[in-house]
Amino acid sequence: MIERNDQLRAELKQLIIDTLKLEEITADQIQDDAPLFKEGLGLDSIDALELVVALEKQYSIIIENEDVGKQAFASVAALAHFVQKQRARAAA
């Protein structure tokens, strides 16, 4: 499970970089627990919308509302947890 989580975090980091065209950073430079918005990666609401679309397409998950999105996008670790939870729910 830990290996899967590490792999998912790496995938999510690359998805963020590719979706938002963050050519100046690498996946290794994104810390798992660093905030994605404001003081972390400095993402904004437009970035959030682009990521929601990419996540829904890539992982067939739905971010139901802004509150769910705020929790899911707190960090890469939070996002990985959210994706895993959504996948488990879909598989049940």
Overview of the molecule:
- The structure is a single chain.
- The protein is an all-alpha fold and 92 residues long.
- Helices cover 62% and strands 0% of the residues.
- It contains four helices and no strands.
- It has helices at residues 2-20, 45-59, 66-72, 76-91.
- Helix 1 (2-20) crosses helix 2.
- The radius of gyration is 12 Å and the shape is globular.
- The two termini are 18 Å apart.
In short:
With about 90 residues, the protein is mainly alpha-helical. Helices cover about 60% and strands about 0% of the residues. It contains four helices and no strands.
Approximate helicity band: 55-70%
Q: What is the overall number of helices?
A: 4
What value does the average pLDDT take?
91
Strand content: under 5%
- Low-pLDDT stretches are none
Name the helix and strand elements from N-terminus to C-terminus, one letter apiece.
HHHH
- Main beta-sheet strand count, sense and barrel state: none
Coarse shape: globular
Protein structure class: mainly alpha
Number-wise, the strands total 0
Calculate the terminal CA-CA distance, rounded to whole Å. Answer: 18 Å
Rg to the nearest angstrom?
12 Å
Topology:
Elements: H1 2-20, H2 45-59, H3 66-72, H4 76-91
Give keywords.
single chain, mainly alpha, 92 residues
